[in-house]
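Let's do one together. I've listed all components of the complex below, 974 residues spread over three lines.
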Amino acid sequence: MAFGAFGGAAPAADQQQVAQRKSPIALWLLLPGLLYLILFFVTPLFSLVITSFQEPVPGGFLGEYQNAFNPSNYVEVVGTYLPHILRSFVYASMATVFALLLGYPVAYVIGVKLRPYPLVQALALVILIAPFFISFLLRTIAWKQIFADEGVVVGLLKSIQIIPADAYLTGTPFSVVFGLTYMFLPFMALPIYTTLEKLDLRYVEAGSDLYASPFTVFRTVTFPLSLPGVVSGTLLTFIPATGDYINASRDFLGSTDTAMMGNVIEANFLVLQNFPAAAALSLILMMSILVLVSAYVKRSGTDDLL
Amino acid sequence: MAGEGSARQFAEAGADLALVNVTKRFPGFTAIDDLSLTIPAGSFFALLGPSGCGKTTTLRLVAGLEEPTEGRIMIGGKDLTDTKAYQRPVNTVFQSYALFPHMSVLDNVMFGLRRRKIADAGQKAKEALDLVELGHVANRKPAQLSGGQQQRVALARALVNRPALLLLDEPLGALDLKLRRQMQLEIKDIQSEVGLTFLHVTHDQEEAMTMADTVAVMNQGKIEQMGPPEELYESPKTAFVATFLGQSNLFGGEVVSSTKDVISVAVAGKELRVPVDRAVAHRGKVTVGVRPEKVSLHQAEPATDSSRGVIGPGRVLDASFTGVSTQYLVDVPGFGEVTVFAQNTSHGEHAVEGDEVFLSWSVEHAFGLADMPPAEDRFLNDTSTGAMAVQEREKIEQELEGA
Amino acid sequence: MRGLGKYLLWVYSGMALVFLLIPVVYTIVFSFNDARRTNIIWRGFTFDNWLNVCDAQDVCPSFMNSIVVAGVSTVLATAMGTAIAIALVRYRFKFRQATTLLLFLPMATPEVVLGAGLAAQFLQLGVNKGLGTIIIAHTMFCISFVVVTVRARVAVLDPALEEAGRDLYGSPNQVFWRVTFPLLVPGITAAALLSFALSFDDFIITNFNAGAAVTFPRFVYTAAARGIPAEANVIAAGVFFVAIALVLITQISGAIKRKRLAATS
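Okay, and this is what the predicted structure of the assembly comes out as:
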């Protein structure tokens, strides 16, 4: 479904198109990369599965586990961490929605409205990708300090009494979702920009010619045509956001109350050394994402993920 | 054009090309169906046909860019079917020119020579560029040249290798009319000067007829008719050739009598005569054809004349003035809509829409065919739809498989 | 009301772009802060941090580690990824769907899962975690991005050019190195730069697979608890300026090339 684009159709008789050739060369080209991925992507997933079913070595040290079939790990993990699981999806969804609301207009302005001004368009693009060039950790810390109790923003809001005197902005769901939205805004805007940039404006003109108001034209012509970009952007935002743990981390924009799945997985793996729990959680995260993504893509009808 | 010196370089003559029972099948459709063809050395041969008829596929088979499903390809008497493109003494001028954008014009022209490790590649390349009068742009990049210049560089790049056979894949398609005419004559000149065998593939019938010694009309993977341009035009042997090459008025009927010189075909109550040597079939159903420019328009019924065929009365549906001629569309009951091209000389008779007229032609100009063109022919030359439909089906099947 | 609506879009987008830049500017500005132990309150402007960047402990070694890791994984990922991209576009082979799926999945998997998975595997194999394992991890997730970037370039490469190469007596080898590869270089370069950037900035996967090795993002993360030294901002700002300069140079030289071409034809 999603990979139909790579099906490799047969060429027409009179078209200047190279038939994809069958050749042993293809094997040599594919092998190194694919083997590498099988070795370091596929097998680790199996490792995760195996680990998730392990049980502690009886009488062993912390972090010592042996292979077993212990599905109770999953039950435990869901029981203990259900709030975190739900929170991850809620925060990620909110961040995705906000990113879309912010990112689509930006992408539209840059990709469509700025077409007559290529220099400004290039500049705007540079601004859009500029954040990528500073470590995202530092950018998140920047927001933390901007929203800090002693900082300007909180001070201003308190002084004009939008928020009560003992309120704080950091360590709240607000700051986490804010951080997530900020971090993934370019991921949402760029794919949409790419599709809008190629939008043939004559379609818009045809819509107007056929008596549609500007908003209707947007709703029935522009937006549907930009849908592949919207799908890409949504996936590129939602998927990493669910697993993110920087924003929700205590040292950054979160607190212990806002911990997401990522935090829990990290804590279990690196601190508590409870590898089976961490593995089980990871797999739960991955599976739910796969389910959601396939449902989403099937519904939206776009089938070119790569 | 360049003088004797350049002709001397191309001392080797072209070789002849023979396709023997070549078939090319792609998944879902057959592009070329049991094609056999011989092109004598040193001739300019045109393969003419609509999109999707298989002519470009034929070219690619000869070039070695595709392999035939069945059949043999012989060049200069040698069976080259199993060789690869880079092993054949054949060069192609591509429709899109395919000039390497990252190399200079000179490097482009030298490419083939360098691969074959020919000495003095640079010198030879310069001479080839001089032949097409582009010596002064040798150091430019293809992007800096106009379409016509790029086309000439592509030609030089192929010619410099002195191939036994030069293939041209609709190379003039992207040029504007005036430039195209100019290039047609130049290419023809170069060919006769250097004596190579040229195989030119095109859908433009005027181009084919202008440049080629021999034209083969191709349709759906088969050659319908082959011969000198005039022969194909004046004496078409199938309905496809009659309607693809220029226009024809075709009337279907049955042979009622024949002598050793003419056959008489009954069409809508009249008997139309066709010379025996211009009729493909002499019995049964025969389609009588006559070219529009051979038909004369009369305001009054012309006197009976055994050397002329006459039909009418008919009503003029349309009269379009095109400068050189006036094109009439006349509805003659029983014969359908007949097209007439009347040259605009003061001697001709002029008619307007609504007039009642009679049509006549010399029996010597009529030809007889064994088939009729397909029925619903509003878009007669759009014969690629069959191939397109198959591709669409394939695409859908694949998507279904993948989902 | 109409008039307002016309400008609403521009204002809204302008604000979004400003919003994007706020932390960037903040980070760069604070690299000039005359900070003591923590870099939270603005004390005063100084060039000190920039001049003595390596004074702060661990900042420069971690930066060097990041460069090395990014460099090595970029080379590996670009080589393998380019090969796959070419095969995908130009050749017919079985299991095409499985291959595409395999390439797509790492991009669709959350970093936590990727990181934890590899770490679990290294654990089971008893492999010591360090710079080597980081490189292995980074190469792994960069391959897919390289494939996507290069594939886009290969797909728009006119196949007639390679056919012309074959028609002009080029063996498959010669056609590749003299025709295909030179035309792919811009795409390959873009993929390499993307890969380098992804690797340099990566934290989550690195954290799971680094053991004791410290890359620059790791350093920042652990420092976040007690206070990130201003020198870290210096490094980040430095990288930023270099990257922006690269982008501007490529844009400008591209524009100059286009002008030159237009002038001579």
